[in-house]
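Our collaborator T.R. sent over the components below with a one-line note: 'Predict the complex.' Nothing else. No constraints on interfaces, no templates requested, no preferences about which chain binds where. So this is a plain run: every listed entity goes in together, and whatever single assembly comes back becomes the starting point for the next discussion.
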Amino acid sequence: MQSLESKNRVFCNGRCITGHNIGIFIFAVLLISIISGLFFGFDCPYLTKRLSPAIPIFAALLFLMVICCILRTAFTDPGILPRATPEEIRYLEKSDNLQNAPLTGRVIEVQMRGGHVMKLKFCQTCKIFRPPRVSHCSLCDACIANFDHHCPWVGNCVGLRNYRYFYLFLFSLSLLCIYIFVFNIINIVLRAQDASTVADAIRDTPATIVEALVCFISIWSVIGLWGYHTYLICRSMTTNEDIKDTWRSTRRGETLSNPFSRGHSLLNCFSALCGPLPPSFLNLRAIIKQENNIPKTATGTNNNLHDTLQYHPDENGIYNNRVWDSSAENPPHSFQMKQQQRPYVLRDYV
Amino acid sequence: MEVTTRLTSEHSIKLFIQRDYSEGTAVKFQERFPAELEGKIDRGKFVDIIRHVNSIYAEAESLSCKAFMENCCACLTGYLLLLCMPTHYEKCVRRAAQYISEENDRTLTQNGIFMIDPMEKGLRCIEVCISSNR
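Returned assembly:
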């Protein structure tokens, strides 16, 4: 049994995965869209006439980038590690009996090249020894590779596989905030020059003041967070490690340096943002064999939204066929055909 | 397929080759010979297979110019590029899976051993099944 037991939601035939509670994420997307919409509706016509038509074009590009990045962050698998199968648990219980402890209390110590001793703790929920930098997210109820934090604004964990999108989101959002704020002020100043007083100018475009206020409030936290993550990337740390102060604690008087740092901050940036990215460890698009004639099937492409997808390996085999990007190899119709032959096992999302 | 079903019957033993984290979080499996396989297969042969799998994953994880260019291009196209072509990492993972299945056909199944692509376990361990009816 290898179904996805975490609290994640899965959309679009397993192409998208996101966290349990996405209310704040929807709020964030709406807020960004509304503020940008007000900017396009109320400021851009005047600014285009007065200054240049390039202003709305750049704003639109930035806005698209922000939306792409937030969607990408929210719907990418952050690096969820699949849970152990019963056979694996049995094997782990049999082996390494030196500690004479139940599996849950065991710790594996790994001597690293740099002299560090990493302690791999056993995860009670996922039944695995958590590899270095893996942490269990209680909100998603899954172990996440390179766990950074669970971000409510994107409604998903930020981990190995979506950290770069998250960073780009912060970067582009900072730019968008500054851009809108600066042009709000320019708008008011120019209108105040045309009209006689500032009050008249504000009365002409009430939306501008609202935008400027929202931008002014959010600009500090967004830029602050972006700066913080830049600092973390340069030092090759995760938020989780920074909060727990993993690498700055001194033991026996000597300071332990971060073993995952590549030595130079530029190199760290480079590997965090442009380094190789592993494919998802989950096999969400696998075609599931029907177990005992579950009546509910999905044959269309979109009617399984908001449903949690369970995936099982074949009854008699452990070799759970991975469907390597079927989109690239098979034309869409052939994939749908396969889907109709062997439907997904679906369960209502509770 | 016939081999798979035979080997995963109740009479088989499974063992798991764990990851080696001594060099960091890069994917690397322990290159030691498991005691359960004693007498089933040549020690050097088995370690060689693990070593080769490790080398494929090391190539996938390496900070090469190619991976850098690939990611930069993907970023510039809004990551739409990744929808149309597999990444360097994906190619390597597929190559490792292919290598393992080739080795299964070539040497391992003859000795009653079946190795499974580590991607099935989220790259945490390599699952090896030993058939006991041999």
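Summary for T.R.: The mean pLDDT of chain B is 81.
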